[in-house]
Amino acid sequence: MSSKVNNAQFQVNHPDDVRNVVLIGNAGSGKTSLFEQLLRARVLGYRGEKDDPERLSQLYLASLVTGDTLVNLLDAPGHPDFVGELRAGIRAADAAIFVVAADGIDGMAQTLWDECREANLPRVIALTKLDAAHTDFDTVVDQLKATFGEGVLPTHVPVGSGTGITGTVGVLSRRFRDYSAGGEPTLAEGAGEHDDLVELHRGPLIEGLIQEADDADLMEKYLEGEDPGRDYLLDDLMKATAHANLFPVVPVVATSGLGTEELLSLIEHGFPTPSLHPNPDFIKLTGENTGAAPTDPDAPLVAQVIRTTTDPFAGRLSMVRVFSGTLKTDDIVHVSGHRSHFGKADDAHPDHDNDERIGLIQATVGTELKPKAIAIAGEVVLLPKLSTAETGDTLSSRDQAGVVPNWTMPEPLLPLAIRAATRNDEDKLSTALQRLAVEDTTVRLAHGAEDQLVLWTTGQAHADLLLNRLRDRYGVNVAQEDVKIALRETFTGKTTALGRHVKQSGGHGQYAVCNVEIEPLPRGGGFEFVDKVVGGAVPRQFIPSVEKGVRSQMDRGVIAGFPMVDVRVTLFDGKSHSVDSSDMAFQLAGSAALKEAASNKSLVALLEPIDLVTITVGEAYMGAVMTDISGRRGQMLGSDSDGAKVVIRARIPQLELARYAIDLRGIAHGTGTFTRDFDGYEMLPGNLVEKFAKKDEPTKK
Ligand SMILES: Nc1nc2c(ncn2[C@@H]2O[C@H](COP(=O)(O)OP(=O)(O)OP(=O)(O)O)[C@@H](O)[C@H]2O)c(=O)[nH]1
Ligand SMILES: [Mg+2]
Question: Which protein residue has the closest C-alpha to ligand 1 atom 21?
Fold first, then answer.
């Protein structure tokens, strides 16, 4: 067979000779098993990926050649914590193999399907684990239709069922592939005894093609009973699949390789080419949006860093999708960091706006990295020498520099509070964290209450992964802490107090007395200082001193060491001494006044931060979510229906939200997402005050 792809170099000259395919599906559905089978079927001597514990958490790329086509396969993790990797994979790919296990059509699969739908990503469904006992293909296909819509249509049907499954027949090709001998399947022209199976599925598939490929000729042929032939139908299939309204189903046993040849053939003939997949918009650095860059190797370069692997020894390895133009070894390109362009500026991801030499271009063939001279529009390749470009950055030609908008990253909602285990770890920690953040755009580094170091993560598996990376890759040991919540103190009633700072025994004395009235302000009122001193009882120059003293005591708190808020302090009287009064003495008197007022415990209280939480969840779980909210001392604000989902709004104390990212997944069976925003402070209920007031005795000063 004359191949358009130069096999030795994996070199292509036209985007139509490339397919970029991402495997998406629930954890354990069989993606990695299938990925391995696809490679084994086409990469000579492929022995499989070595055991890599990171494999479960990151997007993997490997390339193979089938017929005339270069296929870049991306294996995305199925665990919901790693949805950031999945979205990166969606950005790199033009179509997905949506992997569903025969017993795995659930809320989580629906959530992943929705991810694809939002990106308008064409999907072919690989239905795995068909070798399990009592599995009936038609029943499962009906379930798929009920969940994902009528566009779900088998292009291949299994012969035999359960452990007796031997092969498949092609609904369009009418060919029987027999895998029963093990190894490569035998291919028989004509479905023979399985013709009934073909007929059963052929009508609906052709009707689907007529509709989704918008092919009037096919309709005519079909109505006249004429067979349009396999190639004609495959052309239509590619068009229909590209619209992401028709979803071919292929039966698979990922452990044995059954269905592999069918998928490879579909990828080559039925999956959309990069030219059929719309590129993201390109925005010049001047701000001008020039629309989607053309999938044209001769156009100016537009490429994007899909993910970055960092290794303390080997350095960085960047996965790059070329949208437009051609990357050549040793080219100098413009790197545009764009997080600030899209409202995501933070310390760990500085903006980039510089030129960089790209160095080598590589393809992963099986498990080996092979050099490539060029990468054209539509390819996904690896660049081992990029040093400044980070995940999400755009590479563009220097005379037409710009950025493509980033894909949406998941919001990390599970806080992980850490501190360096030893002094030595402390020195290494901040560099290690910076590196972690380069590789993983879903982690957010923050300083929480009381300056606690907090890594915001997407879930427990993500948190564990980060801790492992810190330890194993960067040699930093950290201890986990409870996440501190930023409580506040306040006064609940009006009172007056006297603050004295008087020391007159020997030497230069100190003398300051102030009388203040303290009253609560409404929530969010902050702090007010009012001067009502008459007749110079407190000399003018010392009034700011009293205020300073009050403020500094407020910062330190009076009951549990938390800052005080929402009070008005009115200075209405005092006493001074012509020699012994000083700025410092009045500061101490101001501070003493506040402590004196707080000695009446019934007048002070703790406040807790409340978040406005918006939860989107499958309708069936609404009741469970609402019951749980009230268990968290939450207050329901309302709910709206949004298709099959419900959006629930509630105010929930931050103290009750620390592990909500994990808990909601359980309550809503993987269908739930939420956002949270600080909304204000509210009184901490009496039964909880004890816990915090005891824990942190106020610092006596
Ligand atoms: N019997 C049977 N077992 C399968 C099939 N596909 C996968 N498995 C098994 O299911 C388990 C999970 O398979 P993986 O390929 O690792 O699943 P995955 O989708 O990559 O999972 P994540 O990477 O965690 O998202 C493994 O033990 C496989 O051997 C299948 O078609 N039939
Ligand atoms: Mg996997």
Answer: 28
Report yes or no on 523 lying in a domain.
yes
Q: Angle CA(611)–CA(613)–CA(616) in degrees, nearest 5?
A: 170
| Neighbour-count burial for 113-136, b at 16+ CB within 10 Å, e otherwise | bebbeebebbbbbbbbbbbeeebe
Does 253 contact ligand 1 (Cβ within 6 A)? yes
Residue 330 exposed, middle or buried by CB count within 10 Å (0-12, 13-18, 19+): exposed
Angle between helix 583-598 and helix 543-556 axes, rounded to 10 deg? 50
Domain CATH number, residue 354: 2.40.30.10
Q: Cα–Cα distance between 555 and 678 in angstroms, integer?
A: 20
Report whether residue 128 contacts ligand 1, using a CB cutoff of 6 Å: yes
- Please indicate, yes or no, if residue 202 is contained in any of the structural domains: yes
Q: What is the mean pLDDT of residues 256-264?
A: 95
Q: How many CA atoms lie within 13 A of 634 on its CB side?
A: 26
Q: Do 349 and 470 sit in the same domain of this protein?
A: no
Residue 164: HSE in the Cβ half-sphere, 13 Å Cα cutoff? 7
CB 154 within 8 A of CB 173: no
List all residues 6 or more positions away from 598 whose beta carbon is below 8 Å from its beta carbon.
Answer: 491, 558, 559, 604
Q: Ligand 2 centre and the CA of 31: distance in Å?
A: 5
Amino acid, res. 597? A
Q: Which ligand is nearest to the CA of 254?
A: 1
Q: Which listed ligand is nearest to 133 at the C-alpha?
A: 1
Q: Among 324, 288, 285, 289, which residue's Cα sits nearest to residue 304? A: 324
Q: What is the pLDDT of residues 30-83, one digit of tens each?
A: 999 999 999 999 988 887 766 677 788 999 999 999 998 999 999 999 999 999
Last residue of a domain, one of 432, 456, 481: 481
Query: Which of 217, 251, 270 marks a domain boundary?
Result: 270
Cβ atoms 162, 137 nearer than 8 A: no
- Kindly report the pTM of this predicted structure: 0.87
What integer pLDDT is reported at residue 287 of this predicted model? 81
Cβ of 32 below 6 Å from ligand 1? yes
Containing H/E element for 106?
none
Instruction: Write the CA distances from 353 to 331, 356, 361, 384, integer angstroms.
Output: 16, 10, 22, 20
* pLDDT, tens only, 605-639: 999 999 999 999 999 999 999 999 999 999 999 99
Q: Locate the ligand 1 atom nearest the alpha carbon of residue 29 and give its number.
A: 19
